[in-house]
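We keep the chain:
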Amino acid sequence: MDKQAALHYIYDPFCGWCYGLAPLVSIADEMPGLTVVPHSGGMLTGEQAQLMSPEWRDFVRPHEERITALSGQKFGDAYQQGTQFDYGVKLDSGPPTAAMVAAESIASAGLKMLKRLQTAYYVEGRHIAEREELVRIAVELGLNAEAFSTAYDQATQELGEHFEQTQAFLETVGGRGYPTLAIEQGGKVSRLHLGQYFGKPELFRKALKNHLAHGQA
């Protein structure tokens, strides 16, 4: 088994399907010989960033029902009954992406931060595009507030490059959106087709083990 194998996880903080994938990402994160590397694609940045609205709520809710049905991941009441009706909530992928990058830079905790942000938003209904909220979440994870804030501000300045690299990688592996997973092993990158694994963690675990052992899933 190649101890240098990496599972590239292309996501967006406001992608409900990425939240649905979280149990499978956790399985990969716990697997010996495999490192999960998160890449944010910036789905809601620049002109695409927006505020919560009835239109956005109506767009995502049918998806969220299907996500729960397929993955078992539930969306909290604080989110569905609170945040989705608060039209001051920012939907901007930049700040939570900067938080992920900052956590990775100071504590190799990028994936840990991403997982916490998904729960904070989709279960607890917290405003994960607000700097103050992100600092609070970082402290909850045991990170130093000052160190995180400094790293966060630096990451914010470099978001454009991060998103460009992610988009280029997404195109390279033939991904069409979020989430996309690709295993890099022995200099070869192979995209995983996720549809068959949603809600089937043991099947996914078996596929990863097979890929690590034989280079195929």
Summary: The first strand starts at residue 5 and ends at 11. DSSP finds nine helices and six strands in the chain. The chain has a mean pLDDT of 94.
